Model the fold of this input.
Amino acid sequence: MLQPDWPAPSGVFSLMTTREGGVSRPPWASFNLGDHVGDDPAHVAENRARLRRQLPAEPDWLRQVHGATVVEVGSGWVEADAAFTRQAGSVCAVLTADCLPVLFCDRAGSVVAAAHAGWRGLAGGVLEATVAAMRVPPGEVLAWMGAAIGPQAFEVGDEVRQAFIKQHPEAAVAFVSHPGAEPGKWLADIYQLARIRLNCAGVQAVYGGGRCTFNEADRFYSYRRDGVTGRMASLIWLA
Done:
C-alpha cells in the first residue's frame, strides 16, 4: 500500500494499493481489484475482501468511462470517473493502471473525493468538475496525485497535445518531442498537466506525483506496458 504524503486534516484517511499482497495469478498477479479485466472473479473477490478489512465500508466501485461525470457516494449512479462524499464512513474509490488517480479533501475535513484522470478525462475537465462538486472554496482544497504513467513513458500523438494547449496554452511545457519517434509523437507529463489544470481551478495545494506505473513493474500495474493486467485502487474516506 502507498500512504499519501500530504497534510490531510485529522479524520481524513486515504491510501493507494499496489500490485502486491493478493491472490491473483499472472498476468494479474497479485492484488488485482478490477473485475472487468479478465481475472478469475473469485480472486478479485478475495482481493477486495482483503482490502475491505482496512476500510470502514465497501467502496462504491464506479464504472469508469474516461469522462468527467462526478457522483456522490451512495447516490446509485455508477457510470462516472469521480466520486465525492460528506458522509463519515463512506469510501470514494477509483481504479487505475497508468491513468492518474487524484484524491481530494478540504482543509476542514468536511468533504473528500477521488477522481480517475486519463488524458481524455483530464482534458475533459474531470478534476475541475470534482473540485466544483465538493462545493468548498478551491483555495481550501488539497489534492494528492497517486502513481501514474511517468513523463519518460507516456507517448501521445499531436492531437493530445493540441487538446490541452487549446484550453491552456501553458500546457505546452508538459510536452517534449520524443527522440527517435515518428513525427507528431510527444512525451507527456500527466502530473504537470494535472497541476496546471488544478492551479487554474484555484487549487494550489497539490501533492504527490513522481512515480511511474510503466517503469516500476514490480510495484504497479501498467496497461500500456502489459495490455492484459490488473487495476490498483486509490481510496479516501472520512472517519
